[in-house]
Design brief:
The longest helix has 13 residues. The protein is elongated. It has 2 domains: 65 residues, no CATH class; 54 residues, no CATH class. It has 137 residues and is of the alpha+beta class. The protein contains 6 helices and 9 strands; from the N terminus they run E-H-E-H-E-E-E-E-H-E-H-H-H-E-E. A hairpin with a 5-residue loop joins strand 8 and strand 9. 36% of the residues lie in helices and 18% in strands. The two termini are 31 Å apart.
C-alpha cells in the first residue's frame, strides 16, 4: 500500500551561479581539469551529482551537499517565512511554556493571513524580521 509522506526538516540551499567562488566553496570537480582544460561545463559535486548553472546546491545537517534541479526545487521547497520579532518572541514564549498553537490566536487579534503565517512559522520554523535569526524547531 502506498502512503503519502511530507518532508519534516529544513535545508539550506543556494542557487548555483557558475562562479569560481561557488565552485571553490562546494569543492566542485571540473571534468575539464581531468581532460587538461579548465572551466568546462562539466561540474560535479563529490560523489554523484552533475551541477548546472541554475541548479540548487543543498546542504544537509551533516554538511553533505547535493544538487537539485531548479524546477524540482521550486516545486518542493519554500523559504521559511519572515515574521516580526515580536511574533517570533511570542512563539518562543508559548512553546517554552508548553501552550498549544491555538492559544496564541486568543492572545491577539490576528487576521486570517497572519494566522496562517503564524501557524506555518510555529510548525516549520521562521526567520525573525529584526535580526534574521532562523528558528527551525
Amino acid at each position: 500500500m502506498i502512503k503519502v509522506y511530507r518532508k519534516t526538516d529544513t535545508i539550506k540551499a543556494e542557487q548555483f551561479d557558475g562562479s569560481d567562488e561557488m565552485v571553490d566553496k562546494y569543492e566542485l570537480i571540473d571534468a575539464g581539469t581531468m581532460l587538461g582544460t579548465h572551466h568546462s561545463p562539466e561540474l560535479y559535486l563529490t560523489g554523484p551529482g552533475k551541477v548546472h548553472v541554475g541548479d540548487w546546491i543543498a546542504t544537509g545537517v551533516n554538511g553533505e551537499h547535493w544538487a537539485i534541479k531548479n524546477d524540482v526545487f521550486k516545486k518542493t521547497y519554500a523559504e521559511l517565512p519572515v515574521i516580526p520579532k515580536v511574533w517570533a518572541d511570542t512563539i518562543e514564549e508559548y512553546k517554552a511554556n508548553h501552550y498549544r498553537l491555538d492559544e496564541i490566536f486568543t492572545e491577539w487579534s490576528w487576521n486570517y493571513d497572519e494566522q496562517e503565517l503564524i501557524a506555518r512559522a510555529w510548525l516549520d520554523g521562521y526567520r525573525a524580521e529584526a535580526d534574521n535569526d532562523t528558528r527551525t524547531d
